[in-house]
Amino acid sequence: MTVPNVLSLVRIALVPLFLWLVLGPQWDVAALAVLVVSGITDYLDGKIARSLGQTSRLGAILDPVADRLYILAVVIGLGLREIIPWWLAIILPLRDVFLFSLVPFLRTRGFSALPVHFLGKAATAGLLYAFPLLLLGDGTGVVADLANVFGWAFTIWGVGLYWWAGILYTFQLRHLLTTMPPVRST
């Protein structure tokens, strides 16, 4: 159990708290604080893992799982609060469902996942900026208006990059399937 893995587990443990804060008492400031803590720990777990040589297979799984759980939790929360339209709350997780459906094909070549590439990280970062801004934009006043504009800008770019990254992953899988022989079952 490394420090980066503990940080990823903390992020995962904060997901239900975020949902409760957004949907229960609607304490948006506290929910924003959870998102900020999540963003900071997301940055720190990768930075610490690389700088201290604490990268691990578990960490390579936990970090993207935490990212996906936050994206799912936020789109559900913001969708139920009617801060974002339902079509948006559906198309983001739909990309992950699509990529998850490709895992059996990866396994035929001995892989359980494709390496994360920069475009996927940029897309996730854009979305993780967008969601707190959209939540902050669900108010009144100049700050809420600005947060809403910037939140939607990050959302549009984030969704586009998120799906573009998914398409690139599909092309990577196609390349693997055409260039690598299937692994033998034992």
UniProtKB/TrEMBL annotation:
<keyword id="KW-0443">Lipid metabolism</keyword>
<dbReference type="GO" id="GO:0016020">
    <property type="term" value="C:membrane"/>
</dbReference>
<dbReference type="GO" id="GO:0008444">
    <property type="term" value="F:CDP-diacylglycerol-glycerol-3-phosphate 3-phosphatidyltransferase activity"/>
</dbReference>
<feature type="transmembrane region" description="Helical">
    <location>
        <begin position="149"/>
        <end position="171"/>
    </location>
</feature>
<keyword id="KW-0808">Transferase</keyword>
<dbReference type="InterPro" id="IPR043130">
    <property type="entry name" value="CDP-OH_PTrfase_TM_dom"/>
</dbReference>
<dbReference type="GO" id="GO:0046474">
    <property type="term" value="P:glycerophospholipid biosynthetic process"/>
</dbReference>
<keyword id="KW-0444">Lipid biosynthesis</keyword>
<dbReference type="InterPro" id="IPR048254">
    <property type="entry name" value="CDP_ALCOHOL_P_TRANSF_CS"/>
</dbReference>
<dbReference type="Pfam" id="PF01066">
    <property type="entry name" value="CDP-OH_P_transf"/>
</dbReference>
<dbReference type="InterPro" id="IPR050324">
    <property type="entry name" value="CDP-alcohol_PTase-I"/>
</dbReference>
<keyword id="KW-1208">Phospholipid metabolism</keyword>
<comment type="similarity">
    <text>Belongs to the CDP-alcohol phosphatidyltransferase class-I family.</text>
</comment>
<dbReference type="InterPro" id="IPR004570">
    <property type="entry name" value="Phosphatidylglycerol_P_synth"/>
</dbReference>
<keyword id="KW-0812">Transmembrane</keyword>
<protein>
    <submittedName>
        <fullName>CDP-alcohol phosphatidyltransferase family protein</fullName>
    </submittedName>
</protein>
<keyword id="KW-0594">Phospholipid biosynthesis</keyword>
<feature type="transmembrane region" description="Helical">
    <location>
        <begin position="118"/>
        <end position="137"/>
    </location>
</feature>
<dbReference type="InterPro" id="IPR000462">
    <property type="entry name" value="CDP-OH_P_trans"/>
</dbReference>
<feature type="transmembrane region" description="Helical">
    <location>
        <begin position="86"/>
        <end position="106"/>
    </location>
</feature>
<feature type="transmembrane region" description="Helical">
    <location>
        <begin position="12"/>
        <end position="37"/>
    </location>
</feature>
<keyword id="KW-1133">Transmembrane helix</keyword>
<keyword id="KW-0472">Membrane</keyword>
